[in-house]
Amino acid sequence: MAVNMIAEIDYSVTPYIEPETLEKIEALKKELKAVILAHNYQLPELQVVADFVGDSLELAIKASQLENIDHIFFCGVHFMAETAAILNPDARVIIPDPKAGCPLADMIEPEDVMKLKEKYKGDPVVAYVNTSAAVKAEVDICCTSSNALKVVEALEADEVVFVPDKNLAEFVASKTTKRIISWDGFCPTHMRFTVEDIERARVEHPEAAIVVHPECRREVQLAADFILSTGGMYRLPEETDIREFVIGTETGMLFRLKRTYPNREFYPLNERAFCPNMKKNTLEKLVAQMETPTNIVSVDRETAEKAKKSIERMIAIV
Ligand code: SF4
């Protein structure tokens, strides 16, 4: 899909999907004992056909609760599908496009974690879920953007190593008395937001609250009204009387918000802040994989067992 087409997606309209396609998906789900999970950042049509839409944490918890499921079609990026595979070793996890990776997750390798453990001996290592299974296997515990502070606070240590996102690490450091040692990773999509975007939004939408994700640069976080994970963004409209929101995260989030709160207004902080990896998955690719599943995401048993401990420690804290 061309980049300009992605920027032109109308998130205020529920996409039309051919009834035959919907019937086919339902029939294949039944036949395969399958469930479709979709991340908030996925294309609207994938959010519409999904059984469950959520952020990384919600999807990880959902994946851990699934029963009697043989196939999980995971509309998201590779590390998310890996997490589903780790939590459901008996199910086949399939991703619509195997090239849907995460540049942030690719910024750290297990060897980097080993070196950090050597350098900061005794310090617990926390990995944002946006990491490979191999990295999760080497750390003490995982976190998401919604529970990062809670996870760090729960650790019995005054100094914590936090990988790979430096902006999320700075956000956590600003809220805790613990010393945070961060890695130099970042999300290219969230790095697109600037303070100028916020200044422009304040002029264009003076009544709106400006909400940004903690993967945004620190100066963008500080210029916003709220710093929230996508799960927090999703709950915010029902927790306040604010009618208008400028949303500083991947643009797919706008569809979920507009669909859930049709009487509120949501504007993108920067409409070109889409994640090309998230958008590699399409409805056509999903249906093709349901017909002939080939893009199977698996994690070797030893890595999966170690990574599972880091994920389960996180889930126990939430
Ligand atoms: Fe990775 Fe950023 Fe894309 Fe999320 S939005 S998948 S963190 S590159």
Write the layout of secondary structure elements.
Elements lengths: L2 H5 L11 H14 L1 E6 L4 H6 L2 E3 L1 H10 L5 E5 L2 H10 L4 E3 L15 H10 L5 E4 L4 H4 L4 E3 L4 H7 L4 E5 L2 H8 L5 E4 L12 H10 L4 E4 L5 H6 L2 E2 L2 H10 L4 E5 L3 H9 L4 E4 L14 H9 L4 E2 L3 H17 L1
Helix pairs in contact: 4-5, 5-15
Low-confidence spans: 1-5
According to DSSP, the number of beta strands is 13
The helical percent reads 40-55%
The dominant shape is: globular
Largest sheet: 5 strands, mixed
Spatially, the strands of the biggest sheet line up as 2-1-3-4-13
Query: What's the alpha carbon Rg, rounded to whole Å?
Result: 19 Å
H/I helix tally: 15
Strand pairing plus helix content: what structural class? alpha/beta
Percent of sequence in beta strands: 15-25%
Task: Identify the bound ligands.
Answer: iron/sulfur cluster
Please state the average pLDDT score. 95
* N→C terminal distance: 37 Å
Order of helical and strand elements: HHEHEHEHEHEHEHEHEHEHEHEHEHEH
